[in-house]
Amino acid sequence: MTNWSVSGKYFEACNCEAICPCIVFSPPTDGKCVAVLGWRIDTGTYDETDLSGLKAAMLATADGNMKDGNWRVALYTDAQANEAQTAALQAIFSGQAGGHLANLGPLIGEVLGVKSATINLVEDGKRFSLQIDDHAAATYELIEGQEGGVVQVSGHPLAPVPGVAFTIGRSEQFRFNDHGISVDVSGKNAFTANFSYAP
């Protein structure tokens, strides 16, 4: 088995109202959930291949309740990655290398494609942004909780990152257009969290 581990920051935006009802197995706000997930790897290796500083992203969408599966997904890997790094990113974030993301495999009904892209994932205090070439762009700010703190949810059953609290934001913009799927909304759900994956 390949020895690998990656950790860093997780970004997400979707077209549901905040907080996304899909995470508690309720139907999506508009009958269809379109979510873009992003990972910024702060430290990571795949055997001898260094993955630190690289990024990956994914489209996940489903008609109807996300718990029922039939997700359509597309994977985007960092255009700055070399051949070995690209192969490692594809293995990890598709779930082929094992780890938590492999648990999402039974929910996937169709893989729309895998492509290299320029991925920008930026954290600036309580503001976050996610961009994938011209395919996706999201900017969001964390929702202010009691006494100026953040609002978090943990333990939700569809969490792409296990065992951590997800901090909830609301988008100023969320736009996606690729693979025949298009969305352009504002004021919708967003998440961020620390992530750590290993086999």
Description:
The chain has 199 residues and is mostly beta strands. The chain has one domain. Helices cover 6% and strands 53% of the residues. It has one helix and 13 strands. Strands 1, 2, 3, 4, 5, 6, 7, 8, 9, 10, 11, 12 and 13 form a 13-stranded mixed β-sheet that branches. Strand 2 and strand 3 (49-50) form a beta hairpin. The longest helix has 11 residues, at 83-93. The protein is globular and about 45 Å long. The mean pLDDT is 96.
What key attributes describe this structure?
mainly beta; globular; 199 residues
Please describe the topology of this protein.
Layout: E1 4-14, E2 32-46, E3 49-50, E4 55-63, E5 71-78, H1 83-93, E6 108-117, E7 119-124, E8 127-132, E9 136-142, E10 152-154, E11 165-178, E12 181-185, E13 189-197
TL;DR of this structure?
This protein has one helix at 83-93; strands at residues 4-14, 32-46, 49-50, 55-63, 71-78, 108-117, 119-124, 127-132, 136-142, 152-154, 165-178, 181-185, 189-197. The protein is mainly beta and 199 residues long.
Strand count:
13
Distance between the termini: 9 Å
Range of strand content: over 45%
Mean pLDDT: 96
Name the poorly predicted regions: none
